[in-house]
């Protein structure tokens, strides 16, 4: 009987410990930074798009929105294209990884996450 | 391999998965439903095999839970294949995704092996227990690996 309870208890503890890790998808609480560079590669689509930005010779991965979010921000197809000069502000989420909250192409301002700026 | 993945990403179905807002959300929902059915029923069956609720007939419990687990697995596999289409090259290049697939193969092999020979009705209780423990750990590992894919 005790063994059964230990087993069930252990399983529950494992599940509970695993839960907070998955409770919040995406934002990691990193500081907000701004980068400027040239797009060298783009992959747009679900679950979110990614562009590679050459920032003074360093390759940064910039996570942008999923298609509907990019569209809502006013980004048209082809705006995030190789060769485009991009200024982007967002969360510093990894060594050379930025989760974009807003970005600028020329004078045009695009807000992906209005609730976060 | 890479050419094949690119070809896959260029199909009409893949393009729909890549851009559809509610289609993608719906596929995600079906994937969660499949996992819920699979893990929920397999955890209950494994606990019975490990010795919980011995007053419930093993064969009756299995008759209810195994088809549910199989249905959940098939739903998760089908919806998971669609989710994979969103970024075939990216997933194939993610080590954790390959680990997840490997763990799923092991978990399925564990279940199939137990059912083929000796079968639930004839297996020794030691065999049932070791298979159930392996099943619990493998499916839990697959679930954790899958969820963590969104965070690595």
From TrEMBL, chain A:
Residues 1-25 form the signal peptide. It comes from the Bacteria. Keywords: Signal. This is DNA-binding protein.
From TrEMBL, chain B:
It comes from the Bacteria. Keywords: Membrane, Transmembrane, Transmembrane helix. The chain crosses the membrane at residues 22-45, 65-85, 97-118, 130-150. This is DUF2214 domain-containing protein. It comes from Halomonas salipaludis.
